Amino acid sequence: MASTPSVKKIMQPSEKATSGYSSAPMVRPSIPEGKSMRTADELAQATEKISVRDLSFYYSDNRALTDISLSIPERCVTAFIGPSGCGKSTFLRCLNRMNDMIEGTRVEGKILLEGQDIYSSKTDIVTLRKRIGMVFQKSTPFPKSIFDNVSFGPKIAGIKKKKDLYEIVERSLQRSALWDEVKDRLSESALNLSGGQQQRLCIARALANDPDILLMDEPASALDPASTARIEDLIFELKEQYTIVIVTHNMQQAARVSDQAAFFYQGLLVESGATEELFTNPKKQQTEDYITGRFG
Ligand SMILES: Nc1ncnc2c1ncn2[C@@H]1O[C@H](COP(=O)(O)OP(=O)(O)OP(=O)(O)O)[C@@H](O)[C@H]1O
């Protein structure tokens, strides 16, 4: 007989003594001025790219996500925030079915991509993962040339002509803001690039598959401040063309790059909304406590 999944409860602020609360001064992340961040009204009017409905996710008998419902607007940046272990990465991986690769996992509920349930038996996973590219925390270039790294996906997809591949490589590297730095050394090993360049190469590799959604799991957490700033600028530029979902521990980063933010805690979506509002006037005390650094 299957055992009952464990259900985690939300910690109340009154339990702060044992829940990672800090006595450090509260610091609210500042919303940068002059950046074209979508307002709540604009988000409400944006086309819905992904609709998550009552999603629960299990690692064997352990429920890691409970009844998540969230709308992800097209051509906007949505940031998932929350303390370690709250389920941000698990949720991100649900969006392109990367969790399918982990044995014993199970999903309840629906994720609709432009109205089509990605967990339907009719979904072709290869096509889905081409449409929804992913960039990880640690850059993972193959030990091959810069050109081969970026052209890898298109080659697998059957594109053979050198000229076509070159065009894709050039376009992808331009979009990932790396072209000018590498155009004269495309045949050099990707492993010779700096950490920040390698991460932009991985973004180019994802873009080469011509996705319309990019999932990014802590894409800048291993980088120095200058490389982080480049990735953040890039995310801001890419949202003109792509729907972007980013997991970040860094509140300032979420405030700088995202239009919408979703705060998770212990597998629950506590609150989501326009970043500007969530960071200045959250509806829930828990959100306020987290974004001002009182716990987590
Ligand atoms: N492969 C796995 N097998 C079993 N349990 C897992 C697996 N990956 C994550 N979990 C569990 O699921 C829960 C959510 O983890 P997840 O990595 O999604 O959280 P997170 O918010 O992304 O954390 P972090 O910010 O530390 O990366 C945790 O309890 C974690 O232990």
| List of distinct ligands in this structure | adenosine-5'-triphosphate
Classified in CATH, the superfamily of the domain at 37-142 and 211-291 is: P-loop containing nucleotide triphosphate hydrolases
Reported CATH architecture of the domain at 37-142 and 211-291: 3-Layer(aba) Sandwich
Quote the beta fraction.
Answer: 15-25%
Terminus-to-terminus distance? 37 Å
Count of extended strands:
10
Determine the number of helices (DSSP H or I, runs of at least 4 residues).
11
Q: Fraction of residues in helices?
A: 25-40%
Topology order in helix (H) and strand (E) letters: HEEEHEEHEHHHHEHEHEEHH
In CATH, the topology of the domain at 37-142 and 211-291 is named Rossmann fold
Estimated radius of gyration: 20 Å
Low-pLDDT runs: 1-18
Oligomer: single chain
Assigned CATH class of the domain at 37-142 and 211-291:
Alpha Beta
Shape: globular
Would you tell me the structural class of the helices and strands? Answer: alpha/beta
Residue-averaged pLDDT = 89
Main location: membrane
Protein name: Phosphate import ATP-binding protein PstB 3
Region (Disordered): 1-33
Function: Part of the ABC transporter complex PstSACB involved in phosphate import. Responsible for energy coupling to the transport system.
